[in-house]
Amino acid sequence: MFQAFGVHGPELTPFADMVIDLLLAGIAFALLISAPRTSKYDVALLATFVVSVTALRVLLQPVPNVQPVTVAALLVGAQLGARRGVAFAVLVTLLSNTLIGDGWWTLFQAIGWGAVAVFGSLINFGTVERFHSGRLYLAAAGSAFLFDFIASLSIYTPGMTLGEFAVYLAHGLPFDVLHALGNLTFAVWFGHFVFRTLEAIESPEQLEQAVVEDNVVNG
Amino acid sequence: MIRRMAILCMLFALCAAAFPVQATSEASWQLDWEVDLGEGYISTKPVIANETVFVRSSGFWTGDERPQVFAFSLEGEQRWNRTSATTVQHDMSPLILIANGTGPCGSWPELLVVGWADGTVEALNPENGTLVWNQSSFVQGWGITGALAVDGDHLVVPTRNGLMRICLSDGTIDFDVELDLGWRNGVLVTDDGFYIGDEAGTLWHVNREGNASSFASLEGSIRHPPLLTNAGILVHVQHPTSSAIYTINLSNETPILLHESGPSPAIPSMKGDYVVTGDSSFLSTFECQQHCTLRSQYSTTTNGELVWVEMNRIWYSVNLPTGHWSMASLNQTGAITNSTKFSTSHDGYGTAAPAFDGQRMVMGNDAGILMMFTLGQESLLDSEPVISEPYDWTPAFGAFILICFLFVGAYSTSLQRIDWAWKIVVLTMLISMLLLMPDLSSSWSQTVSEQTASEKSDQWNNTWPEAWAGTQIVVIEIDGEQEIVGGLLGHETALDLTLAAAQDASWEVEVESTELGAFVVSINGEEGSGWEYFLDGERAGQSSDLQPVSESTVLEWRLVRR
Prior knowledge:
Chain A has helices at 14-34, 40-59, 68-80, 82-100, 104-121, 133-152, 162-171, 173-198, 204-218, and strands spanning 2-6, 9-12. By secondary structure, chain A is mostly helical. Chains A and B meet through strand 1, helix 7 and helix 8 of A and helix 3 and strand 41 of B.
């Protein structure tokens, strides 16, 4: 299944590559359908957002480690919940890597951005009217390090000591800082706009709350 | 409104004042002739005397070719050449032409003295290249690689492991003192004896009786003849990824660190009170009165010879794949005011300085082509620089844009638009970080590599020849198959070492220049999904042209297939 160990960890056979992609796509699909009461409108908006962020990632690929996906995953997780956030992260990773390079690292990038989405779902950024921008800036900068650490695990191969892995991580520290600064820039420029746009899709929790309130009122 | 316009105009004026003015007139050096010396580098500057150009080549070692010494007429006709069948790599000891004379140890005719890397010193008749006398010295991997010097009726020779003084009349040895191993470590002759550095960073003093003592211990390698300044002995010490310039007081023998600079130092040179040093990061000038003081730095890559032309010009070779020669102009305080490029049709790596003789200039680089230039009507030596590098406006423009951004940010703040001020400041920080990233990541990787160097494992393979021990070894691995070249010496970056191995083994290496450094695209046509390299088993953290390598290292390139 693995052909060799190279720059990005194990080099996959085409079959292994396909298996990982199918697995990730399956997870994304399962997470999406498990999210309750998703309307066609919501799916269309989320799909549009997936395509837009994918295009932005591909467009910004020549810029070293400036990753628009991280802040997007953070905000999707915060606004739409962990499951749709993870599905979003997986879909963007799959689609963009199809264009800029697929491999073993796709798995770790998907996990990394998925983790960022879960992280976002745990933070209260407030409402559109009373938006806690400071929390978003801190979370955006912090999620860069979270994602980079998880993505770096793809390089960890049999025979590599923890010390060697630590040296590898240390070499990448300036790029982690750059990622954090890029996230901060996206958050400052577009954070509130994306947060407001995603408000149009109601999260499962909001939907459940609405149903409960409806039942109570109409009782 | 008028006040705002005035402030803007002042900003523009300040920016404009910061840009240096440069000459842009046509070149006045004209190529007279050029000669291909065959397979071999020109690593040290030629000598022009007696209507003759003397030059030496060092080996590529791709075939049967061997290093040679040539004599050409000023019209480019070869008068004689002399080949060493026994020398080894890196014949870089500068040629030295010695006028005839008489002394207590005898009389000698005019001599062209050659120090060979096989440890032999040969005194040749400059008229016809015939041997007058020769003498042997210690060899370990190589023999003589540093600059020889004349001491009255004697010749002082930096040998592989020490210092030898021989009589100019017949080559008999006066003394041969054992010190420590050296490389390109020329000798300084002073009234109280001789000073020479070694690979361990020891600066030795040897008196005229041949008694040696350690004068100073500096961590690193001393790979040039020390300089005697008013402030003491000056040395530029090489470290794995940086260098340090010291003066050592002659009376109390205390080293004083003057400055820390880039890796792979050039051979420093002195003129009056001024000293010029070079390395892979800067050309630097110092003024040495009672103390030496850094006067200025100019960003460049120069690792070989530096030559003064009068008090205000320094010629140096830029040692890069796209290298050329350059001439730095100095003002009256010894500060570099500008540097002008001198490009030829054989640009590339080079360490040899040009040699001058009146209206003539002769030069050669690693391409092994000797070129003679003559001055046109406009004299470069007496006038302002005539060949200018086009000024690179990118950094100035970038700085201007960033200043504008910050100005807008400040203006937004003054209007209570804090959100916009934030946006502008963060964007400015991101752009600045992106611009700094190539240098920042490179410096950071070097620091991390230095910190972790002690953890490196020994990659020596017992099946390799013993002769490769302590040398530089390159391994190319394609799909588990390995090709290995060993016994290489003196290469300072991973890329240099790779290209040297490629020449030895006839590999084809395709290198692409990027913002983050050189990128090896393919080796022997194999691209795969990339090449990665390891130094002594450790994955390298930066591009190969920026990665320093030690004198004893195993560099391994592995093809990555997706």
